[in-house]
Amino acid sequence: MSTPTGWRREGNLPAELTSFVGRTRLLANLKRHLAESRLVTVTGIGGVGKSRTVLRLAHQVRSQYPDGVWFADLARLQDAGMVKHTIASALGIADQSSRAESESLSEWVGDRDMLLIIDTCEHLVQGCAELVHELLEAAPNLKVLATSRQSLHLPYEQVVPVPPLLVPGDDPAESLFTNESVQLFALRAGAVVPDFQLDEDNITAVAELCRRLDGIPLAIELAAVRLRALSVEQILGLLADRFSLLAGASRTALPRHQTLRAAIGWSHELCEPAERLLWARLSVFAGDFELDAARFVCSDGRLPSEDITDLVTGLVEKSILLIRSNHAGVRYKLIDTLAEYGEEWLDSSTSSARPSR
Ligand SMILES: Nc1ncnc2c1ncn2[C@@H]1O[C@H](COP(=O)(O)OP(=O)(O)O)[C@@H](O)[C@H]1O
Ligand SMILES: [Mg+2]
User: Fold this and answer.
1) Which of 27, 32, 226, 335 is the most exposed place for a label (fewest CB within 10 A)?
2) What rounded mean pLDDT belongs to the chain?
3) What pLDDT does residue 250 have?
């Protein structure tokens, strides 16, 4: 596999689209492990911040890798047989004609001094593990940083769990105002209500909300969106009712993955029926997409193509879709944990949820 002209030695790291909060100790730990191990796998539940933390780290350590830091996102990949191809594409060296892509891929990496990030491996653990092993054996200067809900089970793998953000009360010496969950809520709140400020009047409710959401960043982001129509107190009240109902009378707290599901479920219910349908249908996109593609793929008699723009805007406002604009135009991306939820919903609802054509 030859290096195509125009290959960029610096890598292909996506830009960070929103501000990053906290995680000082975790980032320092990850740097240390990355210096000592050739394979570091970052694990944790969906929405806890694996991808985001790794992206932050990647930007911080970028200058240490003369042959670049490379990011391959497997989130929406269904087929283990495509892992190699996806990684080769991320590296900008995909070769359509090559059948033995993995062989040439490791040959190509050779003695390049680079960091390869493989984001979201959990549904393809076996395929990823085999490829990573092969690459690490063949390429002595390669390092791999993976994210996955479960480890790759390789003997030399360093597994680093990502816990939720600290919530108020975790560190009794810390002020509520500087707690990282509270900071994240405040930043996202500021994007929804520009004059939002943490103050003595709302800090207790914000702190309690972050505790209820177990410090899970995705859940915090989804809750902050509700400020468009509700006060922090009101969000907290509705959420507390909802969660205690789910947890049952005898239990006060939900397990974390249920907290996230409940937070997503709440956002889902608050979407218009047409937004829900579009959310589900957008889950077929493997990566980011343009508005025209969404119109083409997702519209039918139930979702008229002229409504798609407004519905996409609605989903962006609810933090279901990420928006990414560059010189080539605007692209959208369904956050992977939310894509999964949409896909399940599509599977469980009647076939009429699928576009008819
Ligand atoms: N430390 C952080 N600061 C700011 N935003 C964060 C942080 N950690 C996670 N997020 C945001 O929370 C959401 C979920 O994080 P993500 O990394 O996608 O989770 P995971 O990969 O574990 O499923 C994303 O929108 C991400 O940008
Ligand atoms: Mg992720």
Assistant:
1) 32
2) 89
3) 47
Question: Could you give the C-alpha distances from 262 to 244, 278, 289, 340, in angstroms and in order?
Answer: 11, 20, 27, 14
Cβ pair 181, 167 in contact under 8 A? yes
Q: pLDDT tens digits, residue range 80-130?
A: 889 999 999 999 887 655 555 656 888 999 999 999 999 999 999 999 999
Counting as low any pLDDT under 70, the low residues of the chain are 1-7, 95-103, 245-253, 350-352, 357
Residue 121 lies in a domain: yes
What's the CA-to-centroid distance between 44 and ligand 2, angstroms?
9
Does residue 132 contact residue 39 with C-beta atoms inside 8 Å?
yes
Flag whether 51 is in a domain. Answer: yes
Helices then strands (H, E): number in the chain? Answer: 14, 7
Cβ 47 under 6 angstroms from ligand 1: yes
**Tally of CA atoms within 13 A in the half-sphere of 27 that contains its CB:** 18
Within 10 A of 137 (CB to CB), how many other CB atoms are there?
10
282 near 334, Cβ under 8 Å? yes
Can you spell out the DSSP letters for 151-208? ----TT-EEEE-PPPP-TTSSTTS-GGG-HHHHHHHHHHHHHSTT----TTTHHHHHH
Mutate to test the pocket of ligand 1, among 218, 267, 318 (most ligand atoms within 8 A of CB): 218
Structural domain including 129 reads 24-161
Q: How much is the pLDDT for 329?
A: 84
Tell me 11's DSSP state: B
